Amino acid sequence: MHYTKPYAKNTEGAKFQHCAPLGREENCNVAVASCFVSNTKHFPVNFNPYLPLDASNLNQFKSKLDLAKDLIDDALNKGIAFSSIVVDNWYTSSDLIEFVSSKNLSLVAEVKTNRSIFFTHPQTKQWRYLRCDKIMPLIEQFYPHKLKAVRIPQNNDKDKSVFTYSFNTKLKDCKTKVKVIFVFNKWSNDDDKSAHILITTDLKMSVKSAILTYLLRWGIERSFRELKDTFYFEQYQVRHQEQIQRHWIMSFLAWTLAYLIKQNGYLSKILKEPPQTIGQCKQAVASLIIIDSAFLLSKNKDIAASLYNIKSERFMKKLKN
Fold first, then answer.
1. How far is CA 4 from the centre of its chain?
2. Do residues 216 and 39 make contact, with C-beta atoms less than 8 angstroms apart?
3. Per-domain residue ranges of the chain
4. pLDDT at 295 over 50
């Protein structure tokens, strides 16, 4: 997670560094975060602030990959049940792949097109390391009959067919064997990439399972967007890391409370139109807090109750007492 602070010259940890959302270098704070995602739920688990290396933290410095490893250990120590780890292509280093494998966990991730893979050249029949962007045209030219279609769900409740080619091999400078999956299509109409290369350390995982597992990653993006847009995760007005992290923790707690209320339908018996999104849930809770204020309700309880669309007779009775 990157939070731009273009004018924050004295904010601890804010340095001129690469900012992924902007695709350029910018003065920003960075945190590495973990999230749990399934087909039915998504929620943030923990975060570690990233502090760029300088004279003040020579002995305590940790890279983003080190912080990611710590978050994996943190999830294991907390007993969180998960089947796979999903990361984007920036984190798909040989170091992290081997770390995940050492934990007897499976990794599903995307790799960059310039990553070298051990591959049998279809003309020379010799095994050698080739870049992914060199392998894809060879597959299209020599193995079109071996491409397999996989159907993946879309936001419009329809499916989209993507053509894939997979095999077990190894990456250059990586000891762990992986299954490589070449996807010769976009994930959706909104996808800005025309092709994707996935890997998984679970050599027995089906191509469809690997793709669907990787696409759960968008639940991570959704969690981050909700934290930033609805709970103001990045809009802190403090300078020191301890204070910044307190702000982040409060955002996590507020998000968790709203999400718990939404997932369990706690407002369905109180409001005629229960909130459908995290933002609506936050607004509804804020409204109920205002309603329950004796100072505000003393002016006109009936108008206040009707204004917020309350249907619960017990809640109405409480307001009138």
1. 19
2. yes
3. 1-82+230-262, 84-218, 265-320
4. no
